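Case study 2.
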Amino acid sequence: MTLLKDVMETQQKMNIVIVGHVDHGKSTVIGRLLADTGSLPQGKLEQVKAECARNSKPFEYAFLLDALKDEQSQGITIDSARCFFKSKKREYIIIDAPGHIEFLKNMISGAARAEAALLVIDANEGIKENSKRHGYLLSMLGIKQIAVVVNKMDLVDYSQEVYDDIEKNYREFLKQIGLEPQFFVPISAMQGDNIIEPSEKLSWFKGEHVLKVLDSFKKQASVEKLPFRMPIQAVYKFTAQGDDRRIVSGRIESGSISVGDQVIFLPSNKRSEISSIEGFNLPEQKKAVAGYSTGFTLKEQIYINRGDIMCKVDEEHPSVSPLFQAEIFWMGRKPLEMNKEYKLKIGTFQAPMWLKEIKKVIDASDLKNETKKKVERHEVAQCVFECAYPVAFDVANLIESTGRFVIVDQYDIAGGGTVSAIIKDEQSEVREQVTEREINWDFSEIASTERRSKYGHGSKLVLLTGKVGIDKRSIAKQVEKQVFELGGKAYFLGIGNLLRGLDADVDQDKQSRREHVRRLGEVAHILMDAGLIVVATASNLNDDEVRLLQEVTDRENFFIVNVGKSAFSQGIVDLDLKQKDAVDKNASTIVSFLKSNQIFEDQTDSYEI
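Prediction:
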């Protein structure tokens, strides 16, 4: 079966999530839809009814879903379960999301890929706090197609007054969070009223029944038409029978890609061309589309990082920044706090992250805004986060899959959110310039992998810094000599040589210092492109200047070595040296560090097969 045919079949299905407060009847609604559309396995309805009779308990349609869960997952009770049914128009994948407040994390994961939602409210109990939370979460997840079903109308004698009151109040609430549900439907799932056909008991209601409402939802526009995005999952290296391919693998989240397309990997800015599309037991493919996990070989064998996003060169790219604004929902047992390190997970990318600012905290049950210094469990907030290094992502309302993330506290997923705005940092202008440089870089005919094989090592920038007066130059020159004696290609890049040559046109003042640092990075980048180990020195560098150098060169191939007392932020320095130690000892420590990081052997980001 061809990929195109697979995609055509997939487009005939729709993902619907059903949410609502615990015991408001979600499972009964699903059970009724399965039974009344004839979508149950043959004999399942009779089997469950017989089981109820043997145990002397009344039959409920919710038991149908429980029976299917037992078969599929050995008794799922708090996780999202999926089941399937058909109407005359299309096939549906129904996601049953947990309703209890303790399991909101599972509700979010269940709703993540839904195209539309049914939100169930008990007519007898009315609008509960969790009903409002679920509405806010659907809004945050970008689900716009929503039908609110007011269930258990039989318990209020099918009262139009009760229904009208719930519709009025809940519609007003949803309007405040930017949601405009297309439908409100009164039903009794237990009695089958208004599920797949109109009910005489609800003759006062002039709208559509649930199945007709579902069929009226529009299928989302194909993500294939969006810009190409593929987070890198892994790189596989084949070594058997002389096969030297590196296959870049991942799931295509949006867009399409063809053999011969120019691609760029962000945030690393590495660039190449698609040489082939790979798959197990598949005929040769010339094109791959969104929704599929696949592999690619590249014309230029570059070293790619897991978590990079592969994009087309000639399409709009994700934003790259360490700063972003997000709407988040916090589920951790401990509050979200300032100055505490968390882990960001977006696609396959992970990075240390800190809460930088809380713009507002919203009580999702009443939408009151509060000014707070931390975000408590089950609260919704608009926050600004800062990552340890730049991250590639999209604003969620543009490309949802690369704009949605989770926050990990220790080893637990403690929160989730969507990127609502990218915030530029001090390096934004340089980052854009470097991206443009890499897109238009005129590559040598000698590939970086060939240079590595010939030289016996990869390219690296080793930058020694520390206070003025500390002898860094002697250490750097000794490192150059030791690398050279090991057979490596090394070059000492003295910043004094730049000041007297390339930088002679730049004023020697504090305002011009940033330009000196930028030019140091650009020269180092050219030397690294030639496959060299560049050993440079610069005094009194600060955090921002190091980040600038990382942007201009390559943060993956940049080692920062501090000599003496360090004034850098935690995590920015790769190696600390003592000022009192002998030059030879410090130089040997740096060379040993390079060896331990596999600079002199086959450094691979691949799984060998």
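The radius of gyration is 29 Å.
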